[in-house]
């Protein structure tokens, strides 16, 4: 009789312990989700007037935020803006001082650091017969954050959203480098970073850690280079020219330590050397695949 009474009691005890164990194990919070998108804008009407009004928002809630615009022409590509933003290291930008706009016209950009949201607008009209026509130009917007919103109205323009990401980047935390940072400013020693470009070609930007102060040199190479481009924090020459050429020069837009190159086929982009400096930027190597 005693044995029959103990068995239900034992079962109840085991069940209670199991429930207590389940309650003690708190669920692990899901990691913040990052979304990435490439938006392209092209004029597709061959004649007459065209118009476009576009507004987008990139929110970076507990994830790094990134934004860039690249203009691709028949004979090359140019980086217009590249912005890293989040709530911990503040705002860093490519190509403009604090007194200048965040993005180049006709794109207008602003960042609300309280909500970690970057807003960008593009409003333009275009005459196919005008000197500054959009004909033959593709503008790429590369976006990364926790959410992306885009609204537009277009006549004569085509806007496409490519949700399967066609860009990649190496941040200072991912590159082969040593560094320490405080309040968004970092002292770094950069050694290398690499990324693959798409099979139809790609555009690459190398951003060395010396937008504030720096020294050293690095090679910026692509598959098949006869002589890799040699770049540094204070390149010789003037903005808008190629440096260290022999068919593999890197375009310097006049901003310390920032260089770009383009490839027409699949390639492996590689930057290696020794560059030390002070920097508030996050992205070291950025590749947009066509």
- The count of domains is 2
Number of strands: 21
Given helix and strand content, the structural type is mainly beta
| Percentage of residues in strands | over 45%
Give the proportion of residues in helices: under 10%
Uncertain ranges: 1-6, 8-20, 87-91, 94-99, 237-248
**What is the average per-residue confidence, as pLDDT, rounded to a whole number?**
78
User: Roughly how many Å apart are the termini?
Assistant: 81 Å
Arrangement of strands in the largest sheet: 5-4-3-8-1-10
Report Rg: 25 Å
Q: N-to-C SSE series?
A: HEEEEEEEEEEEEEEEEEEEEE
Shape, principal axes of CA atoms? globular
Largest sheet: 6 strands, antiparallel
Count of individual helical segments: 1
Concise synopsis of the structure shown:
Helices cover 8% and strands 54% of the residues.
What can you tell me about this protein's structure?
This protein has 2 domains: 35-162, no CATH class; 167-289, Sandwich (Jelly Rolls). It has 1 helix and 21 strands. The protein has one helix at residues 2-24, and strands at 35-43, 49-59, 65-73, 76-86, 90-93, 107-112, 117-127, 138-145, 147-155, 157-162, 167-171, 176-182, 185-196, 202-207, 213-221, 229-232, 241-243, 250-252, 258-263, 268-279, 283-289. The strands form 4 sheets. A 6-stranded antiparallel sheet has the order 5-4-3-8-1-10, with no helix packed on it.
Strand-helix topology:
Layout: H1 2-24, E1 35-43, E2 49-59, E3 65-73, E4 76-86, E5 90-93, E6 107-112, E7 117-127, E8 138-145, E9 147-155, E10 157-162, E11 167-171, E12 176-182, E13 185-196, E14 202-207, E15 213-221, E16 229-232, E17 241-243, E18 250-252, E19 258-263, E20 268-279, E21 283-289
């Amino acid at each position: 009789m005693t044995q029959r009474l103990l068995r239900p009691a034992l079962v109840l005890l085991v069940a209670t312990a199991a429930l207590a164990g389940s309650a003690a194990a708190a669920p692990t919070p899901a990691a913040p989700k990052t979304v990435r998108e490439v938006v392209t804008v092209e004029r597709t009407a061959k004649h007459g007037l065209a118009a476009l009004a576009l507004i987008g928002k990139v929110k970076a809630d507990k994830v790094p935020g990134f934004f860039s615009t690249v203009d691709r022409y028949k004979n090359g590509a140019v980086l217009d803006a590249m912005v890293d933003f989040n709530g911990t290291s503040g705002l860093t930008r490519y190509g403009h001082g604090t007194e200048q706009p965040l993005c180049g016209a006709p794109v207008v950009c602003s960042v609300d650091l309280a909500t970690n949201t970057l807003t960008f607008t593009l409003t333009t009209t275009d005459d196919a017969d005008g000197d500054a026509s959009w004909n033959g130009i593709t503008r790429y917007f590369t976006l990364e954050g926790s959410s992306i919103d885009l609204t537009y109205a277009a006549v004569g323009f085509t806007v496409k959203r490519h949700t399967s990401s066609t860009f990649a980047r190496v941040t200072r935390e991912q590159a082969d480098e040593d560094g320490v940072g405080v309040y968004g400013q970092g002292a770094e020693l950069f050694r290398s970073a690499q990324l693959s470009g798409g099979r139809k070609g790609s555009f690459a930007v190398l951003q060395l850690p010396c937008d504030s102060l720096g020294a050293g040199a690095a090679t910026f190479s692509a598959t098949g280079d006869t002589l890799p481009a040699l770049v540094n924090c204070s390149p010789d020459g003037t903005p808008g020219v190629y440096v260290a050429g022999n068919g593999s020069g890197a375009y310097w837009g006049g901003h310390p330590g920032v260089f770009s190159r383009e490839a027409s086929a699949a390639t492996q982009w590689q930057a290696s050397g020794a560059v030390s400096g002070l920097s508030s930027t996050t992205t070291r190597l950025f590749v947009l695949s066509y």
